[in-house]
TrEMBL record:
PROSITE patterns: TRANSGLYCOSYLASE. GO terms for biological process: peptidoglycan metabolic process. SUPFAM superfamilies: Lysozyme-like. It comes from Alkalimarinus sediminis. It comes from the Bacteria. One of its GO terms (cellular component) is membrane. This is Transglycosylase SLT domain-containing protein.
Length: 250
């Protein structure tokens, strides 16, 4: 009888050990699975965030416009289907040839101003592709083109060709009339872009009146320290777009 009880105790101990081993194995497997799943989450989440930060902010503002970022649509192969990589190609090329202005500059300013939305209008009254203000840049550009002191209508400014023509003419007006004395081409272009965004009077009074920049590198510092952040960002954005567009023949 004693021997039988001893055997029963041994069998019970063996069962307990076996159950402990099984439980330990299950616990190890579960822990490993959870750890692997957590690792996947840690490694995938930043990638999604990174992709979101790469989205063009102007594309987010124009979700209904499939050509809001034509260059990246064409090069990076976004899912968005576009009919053409370079919107308003014929009008921009025509304007560039007529005015003898860099085609990539027209593309870059148009991209920065409206993201290629012909009918857009800002709270300040800027209209169309190159965001022309009728009674300011629009009137000056119209006079340069037609030698008539008239203010273009909103309907005219919403016409792609007319808007591109007036906006590009104003760029030429800034370059030749306001900053024609600047001999450094890169510096001159930065001044033109700053004036297109901030106005030529502000640029002359606040950037050129005292210790004017002598080259593009000095101009970067002057923009950072003396111009509004919007103007600083605008100039750099247009220059970036121009470099991108100049790499392709539209």
């Amino acid at each position: 009888m004693l021997q039988s009880n001893a055997q029963k105790q041994e069998n019970l101990n063996a069962q307990i050990i076996a159950l402990f081993i099984i439980f330990t194995a299950l616990l190890f497997t579960l822990t490993n699975t959870l750890s692997t799943h957590t690792t996947v989450i840690k490694h995938t989440q930043p990638s999604a965030t990174h992709l979101n930060t790469q989205l063009d902010i102007e594309q987010q503002l124009a979700p209904q416009h499939t050509l809001s970022d034509p260059l990246n649509d064409a090069v990076d192969g976004y899912v968005i289907v576009v009919e053409e990589a370079f919107p308003f190609e014929q009008q921009i090329r025509r304007v560039a040839n007529e005015l003898e202005i860099d085609e990539s500059l027209v593309y870059a300013v148009t991209k920065a101003e409206s993201s290629f939305r012909a009918g857009v209008q800002s709270h300040a009254g800027a209209i169309g592709l190159m965001q022309v203000i009728a009674h300011a840049a629009g009137r000056d550009a119209y006079y340069r083109l037609h030698k008539k002191r008239e203010t273009p209508t909103p309907e005219q400014l919403k016409d792609p060709y007319t808007n591109l023509q007036l906006g590009s003419t104003y760029l030429k007006l800034l370059e030749e009339h306001h900053f024609g004395h600047i001999t450094d081409d890169k510096l001159k272009q930065m001044l033109v872009l700053a004036a297109y965004n901030w106005g030529p009077v502000n640029v002359k009074r606040k950037l050129l009146a005292k210790n004017p920049p002598r080259n593009a590198e000095e101009m970067k510092w002057v923009l950072w320290t003396k111009a509004p952040r919007e103007t600083y960002s605008y100039v750099n954005k247009v220059l970036k777009y121009q470099t991108q567009f100049s790499q392709f023949d539209a």
